[in-house]
Write a structure and sequence with these properties.
The chain has 312 residues and is an all-beta fold. The chain has a single domain, classed as Neuraminidase. Helices cover 0% and strands 37% of the residues. The radius of gyration is 18 Å and the shape is globular.
């Protein structure tokens, strides 16, 4: 899905068009035609999962870290997205409307053994696997507005963590499991919040009149809580990627292009991140160093490529 207020307005799995963006320079190194799909794809190497509409509807794909090769994992007429890797990289949790409404599923890293985890007439989205693999946080509107729940990795024992009239969504676990970062509109605009794993002690980390959304955390940080990346329009109206410490300090702007940048995901060592950007006139996936240097374009396709997720 793609629209600036996607986190505030908690919508079903609609294929929304891109927001305003500007064309920019790029160095395409990745796929741009159907021959890219490789039936002998090596699932054991470093890979990036992402969403694309290149086969006519939203599917989940894998590609190598350099943008080469790739394969369609889902191959389903429904919309599939909201990717979250298990901590060991063996499985992917995702959202799909393949059974009539948007639910959360899990599959093996090669697309096999698809299993439905939630079964509710509400919209369940944005799964996020805990660092120890014991729980999956997700967002749902089963209580009338978007709230964050947590469940066992088999879908059992769902527990509600947030209870606020505002929209709470897009959960992301800290690397050490000590907290859950999430988007919320409870302060009147989009901000990044953090809470304890049981939902207690919510704290607004950004507290800014700008639109802040799409938090992501480093998958492995050698036992530390790690770093948070997020999206904000605070620097002139377009969306850029920022980073901050887990207490909201040390705010740093990573991307500075005139086009909108969205959906960051960290390499396991925290040195680089992937993100999607509209700087080329449609949504493509790029990789960048955490310092904001050495941006490389990974995909180059007329269809939108979005929401990359680096395998841990």
């Amino acid at each position: 899905m793609r629209s600036r207020p996607r986190s505030i307005v908690y919508l079903p799995f609609l294929l929304l068009g891109p927001v305003l963006g500007a064309c920019g320079e790029g160095n395409p190194t990745g796929p741009n035609d159907e021959d890219w799909e490789d039936p002998d794809f090596d699932f054991s190497t470093g890979v990036i999962a992402f969403e694309s509409q290149r086969d006519g509807n939203r599917e989940i794909y894998l590609m190598n870290e350099d943008g080469s090769d790739g394969i369609n994992l889902t191959n389903n007429p429904a919309a599939d997205g909201d990717i979250s890797w298990s901590p060991d990289g063996s499985r992917i949790a995702f959202a799909s409307n393949r059974d009539g409404n948007t639910e959360i599923y899990v599959m093996d890293a090669d697309g096999g053994n698809v299993t439905r985890l939630t079964d509710d007439p509400s919209i369940d989205r944005f799964p996020s696997w805990s660092p120890d693999g014991s729980r999956i946080a997700f967002a749902t509107d089963r209580d009338g507005n978007s709230e964050i729940y947590v469940m066992d990795p088999d879908g059992a024992n769902p527990v509600r963590l947030t209870d606020d009239p505002g929209e709470d969504s897009e959960p992301a676990w800290l690397a050490d499991g000590s907290g859950i970062v999430f988007f919320s509109s409870r302060s009147g605009n989009g901000d990044i919040w953090i809470m304890s794993p049981d939902g207690s002690n919510p704290v607004n980390l950004t507290d800014d009149p700008s639109f802040d959304a799409a938090p992501a955390t480093v998958a492995r940080s050698q036992g530390s809580a790690g770093t948070i990346s997020f999206v904000s329009d605070r620097a002139g109206g377009n969306l850029d990627i920022y980073t901050m410490d887990v207490d909201g300090s040390n705010l740093y702007r990573v991307t500075t292009d005139g086009g909108d940048d969205f959906d960051s995901s960290w390499m396991a060592d925290g040195e680089r991140m992937v993100f999607d950007s509209f700087r080329t006139g449609n949504w493509d996936i790029f990789v960048i160093e955490a310092a904001g240097t050495n941006t490389i374009r990974l995909t180059n396709h007329v269809a939108d490529d979005e929401s990359p997720a680096w395998r841990p």
